[in-house]
Amino acid sequence: MKVVAALVALAAVLPMTARAQKCPYAAAYYVVRGEDGMVLDEAELKTVREQSLNPIGDDNLRMFLGTLSRRADGKYRHGQLEGARIPVLDFHGDGCVVRLAEITLVYRQRRMRLIFDVDLGVSFGQADDFGRRPTLIVVESLPFQEGTFRLDLRGWLAQLKRFGEWSEDGGWPTIPAEFWKDARGTG
Fold it and tell me: For strand 136-143 and strand 27-33, is the pairing parallel, antiparallel, or unpaired?
């Protein structure tokens, strides 16, 4: 009887395990800079996380503290020993597709509203089409300042297609700070 119960439990879990393997991890990593343009250290970033509002997007979207490695060529990776360790805000959820709409960060009594408006990940049965929807991105920040800023994804994707940023050299797609635009008057 115990064997039958174990087989039934295994049969129930196996489809979920196989399903999870089809779904690549989807996340956005945000490199936060202070007013001086320097990357915030882990203690400062923890303070930003604690003072900031929760991200807006999917119900399961969460913000965590994380670290990435930044190689000498400027490309980011997770968990590599080479390169400088950079503290980041890590936005991810539980599903295969993550929607990050916006977040308001607070640092030294300044509020910086960031409108990402980005969908990451792939749905079951779809090819991992990076030209349409990346699974992982790194977003560089402007120097921290009061205001509302919108990420210009169209401009970034147009440049990306020209320069082939999503190469197979191990770096993750990175959106430079120049693609943040002042959103005053744009809603």
Answer: parallel
